Amino acid sequence: PDLEGKVVAVTGGGRGIGLATVRRFVAEGAHVVVMDLGMTVGDIGEADSDGWQRVSGELHADFADVDVTDEDAVASFATALERRLGPPDVVVNAAGIVRSASAEDMRLKDWRQVVEIDLTGTFIVCQALGSLMLRAGRGSIVNIASMSGSISNYPQKQSAYNAAKAGVAHLSRTLAGEWADRGVRVNAVSPGYIATELTAGVMAADPDMGAQWVARTPIGRVGTPEEVAEVILFLASDASSFMVGSDVTVDGGYTVW
Ligand code: NAD
User: Fold this and answer.
1) Number of domains in the chain
2) Which of 15, 98, 136, 196 is the most exposed place for a label (fewest CB within 10 A)?
3) For position 55, what pLDDT does the model report?
4) 154 is catalytic
5) Whose CA is nearest to atom 12 of ligand 1?
6) pLDDT in tens, 84-109
7) Ligand 1 cavity residues, CB under 6 Å
8) Model confidence at 256: pLDDT above 70
9) What distance in angstroms lies between residue 230's CA and the mean position of ligand 1's atoms?
10) Residue 186 predicted with pLDDT over 80
11) pLDDT value of residue 247
């Protein structure tokens, strides 16, 4: 795929799947701008300042300290990006968090935070950066949903996450329908279990869980962030030019059950 010199914005690009995606696009010669949180907040699956230091230290990528739930910050970012590099060619929404609690014990605060970051944050970024793409008449947006958006995976106790990720996949279809005839394609990727800090945190809290994930995955292992990044790259590039509103599963067969 020809991504040389293309402007690519990646939310949550400081670590995990987002970071693997940043590396992959940089390897293709793209100009990548990471949108992530610049300081550590909270515990498992949240912001990671080391992540962005890794990115800025190792890679030729720019870093913008942008909270995807902050519409003003995202709007300022969009203005600055357009002024400096022009409208983005590609936007990847990989920022996301997980909260686990049985539905009856799920704190509304946690529910709201998951929906706010995973679903509303994705919409805020799609709206702000998608508008620049629509004015330019071209672009590709790839949103990271999850297999948990289509299966309940109920032992994980992730009601907020599941609902938010189902929302991301359907939002992607909806935006795809609205924007395709103006040159902007929108697709989603739904990973299964991928080895990142996010899943490492869950496994540390419940060591048997990792073994169960592997046992239930037909391919017999969890995936790597690079295996997801490869699919994201494909959806971002012209190689997938007739794909509009797809939700591509990358799960080692977990959902064939
Ligand atoms: P991760 O926790 O390793 O990385 C997530 C990144 O998002 C972090 O760098 C974090 O700082 C950033 N982030 C969090 N809140 C943010 C905010 N408000 N604004 C900007 N950035 C924010 O997670 P990961 O495993 O790489 O997951 C990436 C995406 O893939 C997430 O959307 C996740 O839900 C999804 N996903 C992951 C898996 C998996 O098994 N790891 C499976 C399915 C889907």
Assistant:
1) 1
2) 136
3) 62
4) no
5) 12
6) 999 999 999 999 999 999 999 999 99
7) 11-12, 14-18, 36-37, 45-48, 51, 67-69, 94-97, 117, 121, 144, 146, 191, 193-194, 196-199
8) yes
9) 17
10) yes
11) 98
- Atom index in ligand 1 nearest the CA of residue 223 equals 40
Tell me the CATH number at 31: 3.40.50.720
**Atom nearest to 147 CA in ligand 1:** 43
The length of the chain is: 257
Residue range 26-76, pLDDT digits in tens:
999 999 999 998 744 333 344 555 655 666 666 778 889 999 999 999 999
- Determine the Cα–Cα distance for residues 26 and 222; give it in Å rounded to an integer: 25
> Hey, which residues does 247 pair with through a beta bridge?
188
Residues 6+ apart with CB under 8 A from 142: 90, 91, 92, 93, 186, 187, 188, 189, 232, 235, 236
Q: Whose CA is nearest to atom 10 of ligand 1?
A: 47
In whole angstroms, give the CA distance from residue 63 to residue 34.
5
Question: pLDDT at position 61, please?
Answer: 85
**Residue 85 is assigned to a structural domain of this protein:** yes
